[in-house]
Specification:
about 350 residues, alpha/beta, TIM Barrel, Lyase, Ornithine Decarboxylase, Chain A, domain 1, 8-stranded mixed β-sheet, 8-stranded parallel β-sheet, about 25% strand, elongated, binds pyridoxal-5'-phosphate, Ala_racemase
Length: about 350
């Protein structure tokens, strides 16, 4: 049954072990972020045995699913909690990232009802402009507020995130701001913070360069462990030990034909309201695959494994390839393989039309 997504558990485990050991050697513990593959329990179960300290996800539904699957780990919620999910938060999550006193007070109330404690990491926005408190004085005051006024909500640490919305590069200067404010908070509360979390996969670049500020003791790693593509393709830091092909997409050819490379007739908009552009390369051999944007959204983030194949585009249910320069004799019924980037991984793992096969 095709299309299918082949998930190589051995490779993922090796990736996870490598990242844990690498970070350990720099005195950093790891929260593995599993939202990128929709927290498939079989995969998370394996990752949870890699020596990482936490399993993290931005969606509480994923964490609930993992708890129900008896995954043995501490769970961290990455997205600032909604007021409407506080009950589940206290019930299922050990640690959450936060930035609003209003929300913290609601968590405290729910903790009193459930008679449970909840750990929070206060987020500091050093410039990427997604979540977090922007002014350092406000961060310090919020930390002190938790420490002094809340009983069941514990100030576990502080953290920051860069590179996700604004695309800001982690540097020893901006992550250094987190270190500086951590020192100030520790002086004021008279104890060490458990966690000072210095970012996501992109922050691995600071570890590689040995430029990570010393007090940072945690990173939240998703892509760099699962695929390792961004560090190599975008940042120019190839960690050779990381398998980039733990997820392989396999789809079936349903049509092979010679066709012109430029559509015939007056061109208007495609299925998604975009006006497409074409160059005329003459008659070319093409293959049509039974999978489409409904499954992976981004055609240009699939990487064909066969040489000489070019992705031309797709519609919701078709992927169109130029196979003119491919040495293989591709036929109807053949299965073609693709490596995938983060975007397609996110959608493919969530598509009910794509079978998941573990190897
Ligand atoms: C998604 C996310 C991460 C992990 O990002 P990767 O680039 O996949 O490592 C870390 N922290 C937060 C807050 C996130 O939302």
């Amino acid at each position: 049954m095709y299309p299918l997504l082949e998930i190589n558990l051995g490779k993922i485990y090796q990736n996870a072990r490598y990242i844990v050991k690498f970070c350990e050697s720099k005195n950093i513990d790891v929260a593995f972020v599993v939202k990128g593959f929709n927290a498939i329990p079989e995969v998370v179960n394996l990752i949870s045995q890699s020596g990482c300290k936490y399993i993290a996800d931005s969606r509480i539904e994923h964490i609930k699913k993992l708890v129900k699957n008896n995954i043995n780990s501490k769970f961290m919620l990455l997205r600032i909690p909604m007021l409407s999910e506080i009950k589940d938060l206290v019930k299922y999550v050990n640690i959450s990232l936060n930035s609003e006193i209003k929300t913290l007070i609601e968590i405290e109330k729910e903790c009193l009802i459930q008679n449970k404690e909840h750990n929070v990491i206060l987020m500091y926005d050093v410039g990427d402009l997604r979540e977090g408190i922007f002014e350092d004085e406000e961060l310090i005051q919020t930390a002190l507020y938790i420490e002094k006024n809340l009983k069941k909500v514990k100030l576990y640490g502080i953290g920051t995130n860069v590179g996700c919305y604004g695309g800001v590069v982690p540097t020893k200067e901006n992550i250094g701001k987190l270190e500086k404010v951590a020192i100030q908070i520790e002086e004021k509360i008279g104890r060490k913070l458990n966690i000072i979390s210095g970012g996501a996969t992109t922050s691995l670049t600071l570890l590689i360069k040995d430029e990570m500020p010393k007090k940072i003791n945690n990173l939240r790693i998703g892509e760099g462990m699962i695929l390792g593509r961004d560090l190599k393709d975008l940042w120019g830091y190839d960690i050779k030990e990381i398998h980039k092909d733990a997820f392989i997409l396999k789809a079936q050819v349903v049509e092979v034909k010679q066709k012109p490379s430029k559509p015939i007739g007056k061109l208007f908009v495609d299925a998604f309201g975009k006006i497409p552009e074409f160059k005329d390369y003459g008659i070319r051999k093409r293959a049509l695959l039974a999978i489409g944007k409904a499954d992976f959204v981004f055609c240009d983030q699939l990487i064909p494994r066969l040489q000489g194949i070019k992705i031309l585009g797709g519609s919701s249910d078709h992927l169109i390839l130029d196979i003119n320069d491919c040495k293989e004799d591709i036929q109807v019924g053949d299965i073609l393989e693709f490596e995938i980037c983060y975007g397609p991984m996110l959608y493919l793992t969530n598509s009910s039309c794509v079978r998941k096969v573990f190897v």
